Amino acid sequence: MSAAFGGAIYNSGSLTLNNCIISNSTTSNSNNSEGHGGGIYNNSGTLTMTNCTVSGNRSGTINFGHHGGGIYNHQGTLVMDKCTVSGNTTLVTSFNAGGNGGGIYSDKGIIQLTNCTIIWQYRRSTSWWRLNSIANRYG
Predict the structure, then answer these.
(1) What is d(CA 38, CA 53) in angstroms, rounded to the nearest whole number?
(2) Taking a C-beta distance cutoff of 8 angstroms, is the pair 19, 49 a contact?
(3) Which segment of 87-91, 97-101, 103-107, 114-118 scores lowest on mean pLDDT?
(4) Coil, helix or strand for 111?
(5) Which secondary structure element, helix H or strand E, spans residue 54, and what is its range?
(6) Which of 24, 55, 73, 138 is disulfide-compatible with 106, CB 3.0–4.6 A?
(7) 47 in Cβ contact with 75 (< 8 Å)
(8) pTM, whole model, 2 decimals?
(9) If phi over 0 gives left and psi between -120 and 50 gives alpha, with beta otherwise, what is residue 103?
(10) Which string of b and e fits 88-127 if b means at least 16 CB within 10 Å?
């Protein structure tokens, strides 16, 4: 699945997910501009997740690096309980821009994680890979 913001899910309200799997989604944009949240983009909403897995998602292209390979939380509230976030990737441009929060990126938002596993998130450029799990900007 693919979309410009939130490859699988775009939320701007109140959303509760239970026992779900969000995997193998990407962000893409025909304008090759922004595209955050490979799996989920939470835009000023409240996202509550319980017993969910977010894995194998990707944000960005080599030309335009973006944030939040698994989840991008923009000025919203993200509450996760007993969830796993693993194997997500953000791509970095040739100018070394973007690519933060391979698993979760929060921009001026609130994150509450309880009994969660956050493992093996990547920030990738054309020539290197780096572990990069959670990034929080002005949170």
Answers:
(1) 13
(2) no
(3) 97-101
(4) strand
(5) strand 53-55
(6) 73
(7) no
(8) 0.87
(9) alpha
(10) bbbbbbeeeebbbbbbbbbbebebebeebebeebbbbbee
